[in-house]
Amino acid sequence: MASTYIDMETLKFLLHKVHDLESVLKNDRFEDHDKESLDMFLDSVKEFSDRELFPYFKEMDETPAHHKDGTVIVHKQVDVMMKKGGEMGLIAAPFDYEAGGLQIPFMVHTAATYIQDAANNHLPGYAGLTQGAAELIVHFANKELNDAYVPNMLSGQWGGTMCLTEPQAGSSLSDIVTKATPTDDGHYKLNGQKIFISGGDYQYVENVVHLVLARIEGAPAGTKGISLFVVPKHRIKENGDLEFNDVTTVADFQKMGQKGYCTTHLGFGDADDCKGWLVGEANQGLKYMFMMMNGARIGVGRGAAAIAMAAYQASLQYANERPQGRKLQSSGKKNPEEGQSLIIEHPDVRRMLLLQKSIAEGSISLILLASRYQDILESSKDEEEKKKAKLLLEILIPMVKTFPSEAGAQSVNTGLQVLGGYGFCEDFILQQYYRDIRIFSIYEGTTGIQSQDLLGRKVPMENGKALQLLSSEIMETIGKASNHNDLAPYAKKLGGKLKLAQEVIGSLMQYAQKGNYERYLADANLFMEFLSHITISWLWLDMATHAKVSLVSGDKTHSEEFYESKIHAMKFYFKYELTKTTSLAETLMDSETLTVKTDQEVFI
Amino acid sequence: MASTYIDMETLKFLLHKVHDLESVLKNDRFEDHDKESLDMFLDSVKEFSDRELFPYFKEMDETPAHHKDGTVIVHKQVDVMMKKGGEMGLIAAPFDYEAGGLQIPFMVHTAATYIQDAANNHLPGYAGLTQGAAELIVHFANKELNDAYVPNMLSGQWGGTMCLTEPQAGSSLSDIVTKATPTDDGHYKLNGQKIFISGGDYQYVENVVHLVLARIEGAPAGTKGISLFVVPKHRIKENGDLEFNDVTTVADFQKMGQKGYCTTHLGFGDADDCKGWLVGEANQGLKYMFMMMNGARIGVGRGAAAIAMAAYQASLQYANERPQGRKLQSSGKKNPEEGQSLIIEHPDVRRMLLLQKSIAEGSISLILLASRYQDILESSKDEEEKKKAKLLLEILIPMVKTFPSEAGAQSVNTGLQVLGGYGFCEDFILQQYYRDIRIFSIYEGTTGIQSQDLLGRKVPMENGKALQLLSSEIMETIGKASNHNDLAPYAKKLGGKLKLAQEVIGSLMQYAQKGNYERYLADANLFMEFLSHITISWLWLDMATHAKVSLVSGDKTHSEEFYESKIHAMKFYFKYELTKTTSLAETLMDSETLTVKTDQEVFI
C-alpha cells in the first residue's frame, strides 16, 4: 500500500511562486490572512487528511454506500468529514464573514480540498456539495431561507445537494419535468424524481437540504421555464422541530468507483406532501445554477487532478522499491550475473512516470490558475482586472473540468501499468484510482458537453475576446521564457502552436459562418484536446520560467534539484504531449465529414 | 443489459472474403473441412455461447473466484466450459488427429474462441490454457507424458496451466529461482513459488497439469538455464489412481476485473514431495515456451479484440434506444418544443461509436491475419510461402498482442462514455468490460515488453527482412485500392505513411549503430503505437477494397449498406487515427533525450 498521496512542496510552489497567492491577498477581502496563516491552515488540512481520510480510502471502496431501510448507509468517516471538517471550517472557509465564513481565498480553499481529494476522493464531496448548496442559498435566496438553513449546513450538521438530473433528462436540462405547484402559503408543492444525486442521503446528518430544479406549472418550455427550490428532507416546524418533508430515498446507485460516495435516486412528493421554497425569482433557476457552475467545474477538475497526483505518488513509490530486469549494455544485451535494477531506472518506466507527473502537476496548476481568477472576480476592486479574469475563466473552465478528468484518467492508466500484474490486483491501490477517476469525465457535464461549450460558446464569445486574452497571456509567458537561452526553443515552439490554433479555428469557422453548426461542432472533442495541450504547455512553460528565475537568482525556497525537475517535466510535456497537437490539427482541418448523420447507414 | 455481444456477419466477412479461409483449406491438413462445415461449427459455438456463456457474464463478476479450504472456488459455468466445451471439441479442435484433435484451421479456432471471449471473457481461458499446456506436451514431451496427460486435458476432464512468473521475477524470466533436483527415478523434485497462474486451481477438475519453468541445480544463470517440467497437482500412481503431488494453492489474487477467471499463487514442494517430469531437453525450457508464445499472444489480442467488440455492441444498442438532447438548427440553437433525438443522431456520439467500431473490427482483422499466417506455417508445403508467413507473423505478433489491448481499452473507455452516468453504474455492462479489458496490456508480456520486442528484435531481424515483407504486403494493398477512384486518396495517404516509417526507423537506428541501445529503445512504446496505426490502416484499406470489389461486381453475400459501412469505417480510421502517426513521428524523431537515467534527479 502506498504511504504518500501528495507532493506538498509542489503545491506550495504553485500556490506561492507560480500563481502568486500573495498578490491576491492584497485585496481587502483577505486582509485578515497572510501567507503564514494560510500555510498553517493547509498544513492542518494535511494533518487531518493523513489521520482521518487517507487511512480509510481502501476500506470505503470495500464497503460501498448502500440503500437500507429507506436511507443510505455510508462509512463512518463521512460523519468525521462533516462534523470535524465542519468544526475546522472546511465547509465555511470561503464564505463571507457575514454568512459565517472565514473569507479565505478560493485558491487556498481549492488547495485545501485538493489535499483532501488526494487523500480520499470518496469523502470531500459530502462537504463540497453541502457548500455548493449553501452558496446558492447565500447568493440567491431570501433572508428567511438563509437564516433557516445556512448555519447548520456550514457547520456540517446538515448536508446539502444539487438536484438536476432526471431519468429522462441527463445532459439535457431543458427536459426536466419535476413539477412545482404554487400554494397560498408561499411555498410550492414538489413532485418528481431526481437521479444521480451525490450525497443525497446518509445516516450521519439530521437533515439534507436539496437545491432542486423544477418547473412551475405553466412555465415556458425548455431551459427558460426552470426554477430553483430549497427542498429539505425534513422541513422546519414553527417550534423549530424537524418533520419529514416527503423526500424519499428510492435507491443508491451501485458504481464501478467512488463507492463510498453515495449517488442516490430521490423521490419528491410521493405522498403529495413535499414542500419547496422558491429561490430568487421564478424561471431563473438554471441561471442561478450556472452562476455557481464555474466553481463546481473547478471542483470536478480539482478532484481528478488530485487522484492523478495520488496515483503518481503510488506509482513512483512502487518504481523506487521494485527490482526487475537489467540495464541494456552497449552490446544490446543484458548481463544476468548482475543484480536486478529498480524499475525506475528503465527508460520506459521513467517515461510513464514523467507522463504521470507532467499531467498531474500540469492539472493542478491549471486548477489553481482558475481559482486565482475566481478570487480576482470576487475580491478585486479593479473593474478592468475583473473583466479580464472573468473572460479568462470562461474560456478556461471547460478545459479546467475536462483536462484533469481525461488526461488524468490516462495518467492513472499509465500509473497502473507501472505496477504490471500487481496494478490489476486489489492489494494495490492503483486499480482503485483507475476506477474512481473514471467518473470525472461524466460529472457536471460530460467531456462532450464541455467541448461543445468550449468551441460553441467560449471561443466565439464577445467576438473571440476570451480567446484573444488567453493568447495574450500565453504570449506574455513566451516573452519571459525567451529571455533564458535554454527555455527559448520551447517558447518558440509554443508560439508556433498558437499560430496553428488560429489556423484551426479559422478553418472550423467556415462551417459556422455557413450555418452548419452541426459540422462546426462535430469534432469539438478533438478541439478540446488540442487547446488543452496548448494551455497545459503554457502552464508548464510558466512553471519552468519561474523555476529558472529562482535558479538564476539563487532563491533557496526550494532545492536546485526541485527547480531543475520542473524544467525537465516541462521539456517532457512539450516533447510527448504538445506534439499531439500536430495530428489533432490535421484531423480538425480535414474537410471530410464522417460523423454527421446522413441517409447512409454506417452502423451495420 | 445489452442483448448482443458480437457481429457475426463481420466475422464471416473477414474470415471468408478478406482473409480468404478457403485458400488455406486447400492444404492437405484441412482436407476434411470445407466452408460450410466450418461455418456450421462457428454457428454451434455461437449457440453454445448464447446459452452457456453470455448469460453468466455479469454473475461471474459479482461472485469472484476465491480461495477456500486449500482450493479455488469458481463459478459453476467453469464446469460447463470445460466439460461441454471439451465434448464439443473446443479444446481439441486445432490439434492433429493423432493427438486426438480435429485439425481445424487455426483461423477457425481463433474465430470460435473470439465468439466465446466476446460472450464471456472469464471462461474461455480455462480451456485455452489447458490447450496451451497440452500443446507444449504434444510438441516437446515424450510419448509417456503424452499418453498420461493429453487425452484428459483435451476432453476437459483435467485442466492445464503455464507457470512462468515468480514473486521476484515478473517480466524478467531470467530471474526464475524455482528449483528442480534430479532423482534416480527419472523425475525431478520441484521447489518454488509461482504467482499469477491463470486457471491454477478450481473445484471442477480432477487434476491440473502445470507446465512449470524451473532451474535444474547447477544450470547456467539467466535464460539459458531454464528447463520445462510437467508438474501435475495429482500424480498418477502405477495403478492409474491419482495421488497428491504437493502442489498447494496458497492464494487466489483478487483483481479489478476478470474476477471469474482465477489467478492463483501456487507452492511447489512445500512438503518436499513434489515430482516433476522434464519436457524435452534440459535448459531448453524457455525456447519451448517461446515456440508456443506466438499462439498465446494471438490469444491475448483475440480476447481484447472480443471485449472491444462486445462493448461496441452494448454501446451501439444503448445509443439506438436512448433519447437525449436535440439536433442543432441552422440558427445554432435547439428547439425545445421538438421531441428529443436518439443519441445516435449526435455527431459526437457517432464519432465515439465509429471509434469503437473501427478499433474493434480492425483488431479482429489483425488477429485473423496472424492466425492465417499461423495456418500457413503449420499446413503449407511451399517453403517459400512458409518462410514469408513466419517473418510476417514475427513482425506482427507484438502488435497483435498490443493493439487490441491498448486501443481496445481506449475504445471500451469511449464506449462507457456513450452511456454517460449510466456507463459508470453496475446496472450497465460497460463498466465491466472497462475493468476486464485492462489486464490485456499486462498479460503475456506487457506493452513495454512487446514494444521492446518489436523495435529491438523484430524490426532489425534478418536485416530488416520482416519489415520489408510487411511493407510489400501493404504496397500490394495500396496498389489494389488505387484502382478505385474513391479509395485512391486513402491508398496514397497510406503510402506516405510507409515512407514516414522508413524515416522514423532511419532516425532511431542512429542510436543503435552507436551502441546506445537504451536510447534506441527508450521510445519503443511510441513506435509500437506508430506502426500499429499504419498496420491497422492497411487492414482497413484491405477491408474497404474487398467491400468495393464486392459492390462493383454485384456480390450479394452481404448488403450494399454493409459494404458501404466498411468503406466508411476505413475513412474514419484514416481521418481520426492514422493521422496520429504525424505527431508520433515528430516525437520519435526528436533528438532530445529525457527518459534515460542520468545523474539529474527528475522525480522530486
Commentary on this structure:
2 copies of one chain form a homodimer. With 604 residues, the first copy, chain A, is an alpha+beta fold. Chain A folds into 3 domains: 8-154, Acyl-CoA dehydrogenase/oxidase, N-terminal domain (Butyryl-Coa Dehydrogenase, subunit A, domain 1); 159-283, Butyryl-CoA Dehydrogenase, subunit A, domain 2 (Beta Barrel); 293-324 and 339-588, Up-down Bundle (Butyryl-CoA Dehydrogenase, subunit A, domain 3), CATH 1.20.140. Chain A has helices spanning 8-18, 21-25, 35-53, 57-62, 77-88, 106-119, 124-140, 143-154, 285-291, 293-321, 347-379, 383-418, 430-437, 447-458, 461-482, 488-513, 517-522, 524-553, 560-578, 580-588, and strands spanning 66-68, 71-73, 159-163, 179-182, 188-198, 208-216, 227-232, 234-236, 242-244, 247-252, 263-268, 275-278. In chain A, the strands form 3 sheets. Chain A has a 5-stranded mixed β-barrel. In chain A, strands 1-2 form a two-stranded antiparallel sheet. Chain A is globular. The model of chain A has no long low-confidence stretch (mean pLDDT 96). At the A-B interface, helix 11, helix 12, helix 13, helix 14 and helix 17 of A face helix 11, helix 12, helix 13, helix 14 and helix 17 of B.
Q: What's the total count of β strands of chain A?
A: 12
Q: Biggest β-sheet of chain A: count, sense, barrel?
A: 5 strands, mixed, barrel
Please state roughly what percent of the residues of chain A sit in beta strands, choosing from under 5%, 5-15%, 15-25%, 25-35%, 35-45% or over 45%. Answer: 5-15%
The main sheet of chain A orders its strands as 4-5-12-7-6
What is the overall shape of chain A?
A: globular
CATH fold-level label of the largest domain in chain A? Butyryl-CoA Dehydrogenase, subunit A, domain 3
Over the alpha carbons, how many angstroms does the gyration radius of chain A reach? Answer: 25 Å
Mean pLDDT of chain A, to the nearest integer, reads 96
The assigned structural class of chain A equals alpha+beta
**Highest CATH level, the class of the largest domain in chain A:** Mainly Alpha
Number of helices of chain A: 20
Q: Oligomeric state of the chains?
A: homodimer
- Tally of domains of chain A: 3
- First-last Cα distance of chain A: 47 Å
Using CB atoms under 8 Å apart, which protein chain pair has the greatest interface?
A-B, 111 and 111 residues
Low confidence ranges of chain A: none
CATH architectural arrangement of the largest domain in chain A: Up-down Bundle
Specify the helix fraction band of chain A: 55-70%
Cofactor (chains A, B): FAD
Domain Acyl-CoA dehydrogenase/oxidase N-terminal (chains A, B): 36-157
Domain Acyl-CoA dehydrogenase/oxidase C-terminal (chains A, B): 340-452
Domain Acetyl-CoA dehydrogenase-like C-terminal (chains A, B): 472-595
